[in-house]
Write a structure and sequence with these properties.
Shape: elongated
Distance between the termini: 60 Å
Largest sheet: 8 strands, antiparallel, barrel
CATH architecture of the largest domain: Beta Barrel
Helix content: 10-25%
Low-confidence stretches: 2-8, 24-36, 136-141
Structural class: alpha+beta
Strand order of the largest sheet: 1-2-3-4-5-6-7-8
CATH class of the largest domain: Mainly Beta
Strand content: over 45%
Number of strands: 8
CATH topology of the largest domain: Porin
Mean pLDDT: 79
Number of helices: 2
Length: about 220
Amino acid sequence: MKKILIVFSLINCLLSVNTFAQQNNADSTNNLSNQIENQKNVLSIHPINLVVGGLEVGYERAISSNKSLKFILGYYSSNKPWPYSQDEVSNMEGLKAELQFRSHLDKKMIAGPMSGVYVGAFFQYRQIYLTDYSEGNNISTGSFYTNTSENVFANAVYPGFIFGYQTLVEDLIFVDINLGGGVIRGLTAFEQNKKANITFVNPYINGVVPRFNIALGFPF
């Protein structure tokens, strides 16, 4: 009889511990869900632009359960900018500002109000200063060439659409991958736009241009 009571007591203890563990785990899950749900801001950096001498940062803010606005600001500066020809272009300085409206399609929102697949529209303004060196004929001799320099300024607007996916990794970093495209409209003279233009990388000539970007963000 005593052995039976001991066995039942052990079983009761195990059931009590299991119930407590499940309750504690549920509370932890709820706390994490609430914490993630309250994180409606993401501050991000776009690492691809570091390759071309630029620093581009973004700020995204949830404005509803599945919609957000993102503002992007980029600054670029290089004495010998890549991928321009370093023998022909120097002293590049550029600026980019962009506003995005995003509609997030993931109804579960397992990683907060800005997670999952999204579609959106954007409007971008860009400008650039650079020194262009072109080879010209020396009129005085008619046989020698000399390098002449020209200060170039170009600016353009770029509206379009994007499609992307954003997810929270280890409850710490948002990874955002998107692609899309739009129409470039140069605001300066064609010759200025042509000298500043690099197709797909830094477009300034009127036309349809695709785009691709990666961002790493920190929610708060």
